[in-house]
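TICKET #2291
ISSUE: user wants both folds in one file
ATTACHMENT 1:
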Amino acid sequence: MVGPVGSDWEERVGALWEQLDEHEEEKFIAAVEALVGELPAGDARGPFERACAYDSTGYSDLAAPLYREALAAGLTGVRRRRAVIQLASSIRNLGRAAESAALLEDERAAGTDLLDDAVTGFLALALADTGREREALSLALVALARHLPRYNRSLANYARELSEPETGPTPS
């Protein structure tokens, strides 16, 4: 039985992720697997970190079920939201854009945190893949507007107009 895993483990996982580009894919995945092996059985961080490793090395098909496992195991905090975003991205990459959009629309309604714009950005990608390009552009521009030094209000208003139903010419 593995004992409690605390901040030292979190620091080592963080350091490994910072070095992602310095590792060959197989060695990176093996290093993540080794760290996950230190976790107690049933710890939701395990399948989450494994999913991230597969996702980051191009294996969305292997990542998606692991994200679902992590969420079902009770993943919490920022990792939970990251898992939803990354699951949605993976399933979009697997050709299931409508499912991805639904997942992200639910996530947008679930609350707010520092990952709001990431949720919106990935939702915009999914919407574009489902043929809802104007709505996707609107979402992306509204998210962008919050970060501009000027023109925030104008850009956000114009962006919102993109997703409003088109009406015919105004009668004179």
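ATTACHMENT 2:
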Amino acid sequence: MSNTFDDLDDGRPESPAQRADRNWNEILQELRVLQTGTQILTGFLLALAFQASFVDLEPAQRVFYLVLVCLAALSAVVALAPVALHRAVFHLQVKPSLVRSGHNALRAALALVSLLLVGVVVFVFDVVVSLVAAIAAGVVLGAVILVLWVVVPMSVRRRGGGAAR
């Protein structure tokens, strides 16, 4: 059995090349959604540094803020990696490898964005309320992300059976 994500027989009447093209297009659509959210978060973070109250942050909050900015930038780079790879291998007949790499990059970008989301919520709660409230909010959001992005998809995958295996 192959480990390629675009060669699974899911009952659709398509050639391996058509399946790879379809899967690549689906990855691109998912990346568009992810990039929009990441860009909004990044813009929010970058705007914070130019607010008058930014100077009132504690040194630890400033360091955490910079970590979040770096995480936002890394998320954008990883989410754009499949596009850069596509440009590098355009017309080289390697679509199945491209789909596999795009799939892996998208999963990594989702992991980074989940950390970014939790981090931004923790940062805002820390600045606005308290560190204790920030930790509580981060744990709750982390649990929600874990359930919706990991547990539910695994459950659907198990129930779906067939092609996913």
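RESOLUTION: both attachments delivered.
EXTRA DETAIL ON ATTACHMENT 2: The radius of gyration is 19 Å.
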